[in-house]
Amino acid sequence: MGTVGILANPASGKDIRRLVSHASLFTNQDKGNIVGRIVSVIAGLGEHDIYVMPDGDNLGPSAVYGLADKKNDRQNIHILDMLIENNVNDTIRFVKSMNDLRVDVLVVLGGDGTSRAAAKTIGDIPMIPVSTGTNNVFPEMVEGTVVGMAAAALASGMVRPEECCESCKRIEIYQDEKLVDIALIDLVVSSQNYLGAKALWNVEDISRIVATQCHPATIGFSAMIGCSAIVKRTDDFGIMAEFSLDKPNKKAAMAAGLIVPVHIKNQTKVLLDQNFVIKMERQGTLALDGEREVMFSEGDEFTIRITRRGPKRVNLKKALERAHAAGLYDMI
């Protein structure tokens, strides 16, 4: 049969933005319960190999070992033997291993930052991003049972990736013609000149945002543009806007339960594969999908490009409609 990788980030949904907004905490017990349901459903729909990422909080392994169903005991469930650093490198390393193993589908539990880290080494493996983070524009809030059914459908071969996957947009950041980093949802230019806890939350420090998608129905930095424009993930363009400390002209949902006034100016559509250069007027940091990752100095130049070289995202409804037609739920 097929192979499935499952990654649950124990750190997602626990950053400092939870303290400056009204967001609730997504506990590791919650995440473990989701992993348990996903594994149980996959096991109930076929004899698939399942690889789970280990972590310092023992989230994934505990969820797997806690399964009491005897059928699950017969499944080929593996806790991957790998180095654990308790940081983003664990996600990158696990996903690279899944790519090396050529798993049929990868399930990623976390927020935008976790999906971004996974996207760095995922290659062409279909991704099912599940929302358990702080800002969740890229991953979906979806029941683990549904995730398990879709993963099993892809692993079984009943549904082919080209029938249910879409190539996502991503922001590519270059300096001196070398790829520095990527973002899946938004790139924020901030005057904060240190990385610190990485999460960015101070609106007054933001001078520019580039986004692959934005909508008033989301929260976070892309929503700061989404209060004045709508760009869907299916649109073949992104958007860029500048922000200033002038008199506010919009209200934006920056975080859970938090509406802030902002001043937006020079809003511009950015076509796919179109290069544009940002020259930094002072030192600061680039925040990628909500986390400060790249420090820069005054005068530094970055070339920005939005492409469709992001991960292949599984459309869950489409996958399960195909699986239904192919007989996934039939008794043999």
Taking the sheet with the most strands, its summary is: 7 strands, mixed
Structural domain tally: 2
Helix proportion: 25-40%
**Taking all residues together, what is the mean pLDDT?**
89
Rg for CA atoms: 20 Å
Report the end-to-end length measured between terminal Cα atoms: 16 Å
Low-confidence stretches: none
Helix count, DSSP H or I runs of 4 or more residues: 9
Give descriptors for this structure.
332 residues, Alpha/beta knot, Tumour Suppressor Smad4, seven-stranded mixed β-sheet, 9 helices
Topology at a glance:
Blueprint: E1 3-8, H1 28-44, E2 49-52, H2 59-65, H3 70-73, E3 76-79, H4 88-101, E4 105-110, H5 112-119, E5 126-131, H6 144-156, H7 161-164, E6 165-167, E7 170-175, E8 178-183, E9 186-190, E10 206-211, H8 221-226, E11 237-244, E12 250-255, E13 258-271, E14 276-279, E15 284-288, E16 291-296, E17 301-307, E18 312-314, H9 316-326
Parallel strand pairs: 1-2, 1-4, 2-3, 4-5, 5-18
Antiparallel strand pairs: 6-18, 7-8, 7-17, 9-10, 9-15, 10-11, 11-13, 12-13, 14-17, 15-16
Helix pairs in contact: 1-2, 1-6, 4-5, 6-9
